[in-house]
Amino acid sequence: MNNSNFAIKSIKFLAIAVLFMGIASCSDDDDKPLLEVESETYSNLHAPQSGGQGSGEAISGTFTKFSFSTGQTTTSETEWDIAFRGTSIIINGGASLGTTDEPERTGNVSGYIANNTFENVKTVDTDLLGQDSSEGYVFSDWYTYSGPPNHLITATPGKVFVLKTYDGKYAKMEIVSYYKDAPETPSAFNGTERYYTFNYVYQPNEGVMTF
């Protein structure tokens, strides 16, 4: 066999080998199992604030940050999705409203409120995703204040938060209670407020927008 024939056959062999490697790689990607969607309840997330409520002082205090990927609160400046202080709820995307002690938005989190039951929110409508701004928070319209004589703050039924998280995944959540231990019949006078209990579903698979 002359050298030219040997070289041609070698090139053909290498081309076929590369082709099969590519097919095998695609097959491996296609067969990769999806991660399980996480459905959880987080209880008693403490969201204290200073000032406000007739005190004559401006509202201030550190926001309590939460990450859906870890299912925990965090003090990270970057790896958080949503944060709570009193009745204020912000996301890690957009711009500050200008209140004291708001953390810097370092991520690209976005979201919207779906007016539906938690179970029936099954997909993400990306056209509705928005971010916090100087005009207001994405998740400002979540509660109802009863006024006197009860002065209760209750989560308005049918308000489901839908988010694109800081790591590019998706989540949905609903607030169950604003009072510690989520009492069935809360009291603004005997209960302890600013303790969030919420249900959430986190979709850990890249690019998947269903729950």
The number of helical runs is: 1
The percent range for strand residues is 25-35%
H/E element string? HEEEEEEEEEEE
Question: What structural class results from the helix and strand content?
Answer: alpha+beta
Summarize the biggest pleated sheet: 5 strands, antiparallel
The poorly predicted ranges are 2-28
Sequence of strands across the biggest β-sheet = 1-11-10-9-6
Helix content: 10-25%
What best-fitting shape do the alpha-carbon axes yield? globular
Rg: 24 Å
Secondary structure: number of strands: 11
- What do the pLDDT scores average to? 88
First and last CA, distance: 62 Å
Domain module tally: 2
The gist of it:
The protein has one helix spanning 3-31, and strands at 38-46, 64-67, 72-74, 82-85, 88-91, 110-115, 143-145, 153-155, 159-164, 170-179, 193-203. A five-stranded antiparallel β-sheet has the order 1-11-10-9-6, with no helix packed on it.
Secondary structure elements and pairings:
Layout: H1 3-31, E1 38-46, E2 64-67, E3 72-74, E4 82-85, E5 88-91, E6 110-115, E7 143-145, E8 153-155, E9 159-164, E10 170-179, E11 193-203
